[in-house]
Each structure stands twice: as C-alpha cells, then as structure tokens.
Design a protein that fits this description.
The protein folds into 2 domains: 114 residues, 3-Layer(aba) Sandwich (Rossmann fold), CATH 3.40.50.2300; 97 residues, Winged helix-like DNA-binding domain superfamily/Winged helix DNA-binding domain (Arc Repressor Mutant, subunit A, Orthogonal Bundle), CATH 1.10.10. Helices cover 37% and strands 23% of the residues. The longest helix is centred in the last third of the chain and has 15 residues. It is globular, with a radius of gyration of 17 Å. The chain is built from 8 helices and 14 strands. By secondary structure, it is of the alpha/beta class.
C-alpha cells in the first residue's frame, strides 16, 4: 500500500526514526517542524499526518481544527498519557491518538490501518432533509451553503451506520470495523466521533433525528424518508 505521510513536530531524531520506518514500508514521507509548514503541507494532497501534541507551542487540537477547515486528511496525534490531550485532539478532528512512549512498528501499523480503512464509498451522495453528504469528497453541504469536512474516522463510522440504515450497529461491530479492535477500549472514542458527526449532520445535535443512540447496544442511522 502506497501513501503520502507528513511527519510534523517533535524532535528531529524522532522525525527521522519515523521517516526511516515509514519509507521502509514504501510510503512517501515529508517532514514539517513549524506550524506554518504543517498546515500548508497537510493541505497539499497528504494522506496521513502524524503530528506531535504541540508544535511551536501550539497544541495539536488547535492545529487539527485549522487543518480540518482545509482538508479531510487522516491525522494521528502523538502525546502523553495524562490530562485531556487525547479527548481534545479527537474532538478537534484527529483520527487516532497514540500515547508516548510508543513503539515505532505499532505507529506504522496504525498509519497502514488508517490508509486501508478509508476506502471508496458505495454511494456517491446521501441526501438528507436539509443537507447533502458527498461521500466521494467527504463533505457535508447545508442549504445555507456551509461546507463541513468529514474526518476519515467520522467517514468510516458514518459509512458503517449507513449499511444498512434503520438497523442498530453495536459498539462491538463499530469497533471491529472502524478501529479494528475490541469495543471495550473504544467506546469513549466512539462517543467523541458520533458527537462530531451529529454536529455536522444534525439540525439540532442535542436532539438528533438521524444518528440515534440505541441504549446499551450502539447507534442507528434513522432515515425518516428515502436516503438518496
């Protein structure tokens, strides 16, 4: 599997280690060590960005929000095991959070999995009552002209919920399909991703009409009329 990977922030030694491992896996790798470089290069046809939790004193979640206004590139954040950094990063649009210290082969495997899981959709367009989801570009367009980008993880969860509509998807099924891991460690991440999806798809995210919670089971995409 080929792919273009941007390694951003962190020490030069860490970037070099990651670059060597990723290039050994056959990926095209670029580096960025400033905020400006990271935002610019992330928007230039990269497939995955692996970034440090802070670059030039700017936290990863601020960078994620900026990048998400420009592209739906996959984002993996590397940070410590304390505080709310992981939740902040995921809320801001990161697809994965890897706690440091990490094992390089494991991180490379996560990059590979993220690339592999983002496949072309079965349907190009989903038409809802007040907005349209372009599954090819992963953009949500509202009647007011506003456009939101779906992150790779949001896209995968949505695609899973749409196949089929009006039937529950269990936590276990979502975890295996999207995260390729057991559900027990991913339920909180699921909630974060579903919350972000609701903000982009629902007229009233606090009272969702499309992505419904099935108590003690998982989630269901409710189509009150035909989903085009």
């Amino acid at each position: 599997m080929t792919g273009r990977i941007l390694v951003a922030g962190g020490s030069e030694e860490c970037r070099q280690d990651l670059r060597s491992a990723l290039e050994l896996g056959g990926y095209l790798v670029a580096e960025a060590d400033t905020v400006a470089e990271t935002v610019q290069m992330a928007s230039e046809q990269q497939d995955v960005v692996v970034m440090d939790s802070s670059i030039d004193g700017i936290s990863a979640h601020h960078l994620c929000r900026t990048i998400r206004t420009k592209t739906s590139v996959g984002i993996i954040v590397i940070g410590d095991r304390t505080g709310t950094c992981a939740i902040d990063a995921l809320n801001a649009g990161a697809d994965e959070y890897v706690a440091s210290p990490f094992i390089v082969p494991e991180l490379v495997a996560r990059v590979r999995a993220l690339l592999r899981r983002v496949a072309r959709p079965d349907r190009e367009e989903i038409v809802l009552q007040d907005r349209t989801i372009d599954m090819r570009s992963r953009k949500v367009r509202g009647n007011d002209g506003r456009v939101s980008h779906l992150t790779p993880k949001e896209f995968l969860v949505l695609r899973c919920l749409l196949n089929p509509v009006n039937k529950p998807n269990t936590h276990h099924h979502l975890a295996q399909t999207v995260w390729q891991r057991d559900a027990r460690g991913e339920v909180e991440y699921m909630r974060v991703v579903v919350k972000q999806l609701r903000r982009k798809l629902e007229p009233d995210p606090e009272n969702p009409r499309y992505i419904l919670t099935e108590r003690a089971i998982g989630y269901r995409f409710h189509a009150p009329s035909r989903v085009g």
